[in-house]
Amino acid sequence: MPNIRSSTDLRNCYNEISTFCHESREPVFITKNGQGDLAVMSIETYETLNGKLELYRLLDEGMADVKADRTQPLADAMREVRQEMADGRI
User: Fold this and answer.
1) Residues in Cβ contact with 36 at an 8 Å cutoff, skipping those fewer than 6 apart
2) Can you give the residue range of the structural domain that contains 14?
């Protein structure tokens, strides 16, 4: 169940909301004049969410490559990765 608080609560109960976000790893939804306005979350939760979004973007890119037949054998791909590592490019 989402945690919904008012903008007044954010101002008056910041430490409580911050503690909740860090301990639960869940966002708090802030309302302004009874309407949804913000989502507040810990930096850790934000970074995790961003990491997942980046992973999904890369997976989608990979699936598009597979559908467009832009693939190569695993041995060839691993050889390229090893070479890039040896050259210091990754």
Assistant:
1) 29, 30
2) 3-41
